[in-house]
Amino acid sequence: MxxxxxxxxxxxxxxxxxxxGPIAENGKEILLSLKNxxxxxGKGETTVExxxxxxxxxxxxxxxxxxxxxxxxxxxxxxxVIRVNELTNGEIDYKGVRISGKIPRELDREVIRNIQMVFQxxxxxxxxxxxxxYIISEGLYxxxxxxxxxxxxxKVENMINSVGLLPEHLTRYPHEFSGGQRQRxxxxxxxxxxxxxxxxxxxxxxxxxxxxxxxxxxxxKFQREKGLTYLFIAHxxxxxxxxxxxxAVIYKGRIVEIAESDELFNFPLHPYTHSLxxxxxxxxxxxxxxKVLFTYNPAVHDYSVDQPELVNIGHDHxxxxxxxxxxxxxxxxxxxxxxxxxxxxxxxxxxxxxRVNTAITEAEAAFLKxxxxxxxxxxxxxxxxxxxxxxxxxxxxxxxxxHVFNSRACKKGAIIGLIIRAGILVIxxxxxxxVVI
Length: 437
Hints:
With 437 residues, this protein is of the alpha/beta class. 43% of the residues lie in helices and 18% in strands.
């Protein structure tokens, strides 16, 4: 059956894409659809099943993230979407039109035009012998997407400005730029084609932390302005949580869970998802040191009799499991009680069983919920020393907003300031008394 699907006659495939894709049961337009996709590499004893029976839909205008550990098949799926990796089984549809396997040349060009990719390594993905101007213009040349030379130059300059670089950078070569700047060039190369779908293959993993936020902001800006749809491939769940509309978790080539971002983090039902979320670092050395990781063991599943499948258990939440597991997952989800994924212990003198069952203390939970700008900076102490009365007022305001550390810093500075002023008054009084006597 798989081979028949991949050898559909060219006459049965449309030569262009319709304006809109099919509509899902929830009323959203399906832009990209993977149906029972298998991808294998090698032959005979060296055969490797990189992707197994992967199925999911990506809706127009959303950010759909694919997460999993290294080697799980994330990039393999992304490369299959842009027709670099061939499928062994199943099919990939774009706007309801099959784009996997053999397709007409006109449709192949439409795929390139409508689906662009931003690669993980900005250095390896750019031609070192070409100027930035040519790198960004290459797609425009290939598809004749400009009226004349002035129009091409205008499009390239507008795009280079949009990604935060300058027109004078167009005459330079990729090796003259930093990693973050090279990724901006790669982003400009993709966006100048005005695609509808962008496959972002870990576009920030090779960048510094400060630069990551800038690239993510650029991606979100383009999505707002151009109505883009993203297939965002990543392994860092702490980032994925805040930029994704929906998330699919993949383990050894198989999709094990799909849900909306908040749904997945509040109710991680599959044990592998649970283990990924428990591994997210806590931004505090003490708590991180005492955190107990949840380790996923595939041996907990018994699929010898009852075969598993990806099932919607409600709330648009799909989980992979057999009938017994699905029933247990559904029962757990129907309780509507968020699943605790982070365990922090307060002592190293307890048993391993106690480690697993110890809950976060109230103080630790309060720390984890602390506002991000509640740093207790020394500037607040300095402010308190200079203006103690205003600092005391600020301390009460910070406390009412749950900025505990900022409140303490203002209060500490105010106390120091008042003590200094009291000391000055005492010294002045003693001096005055000595003069009078």
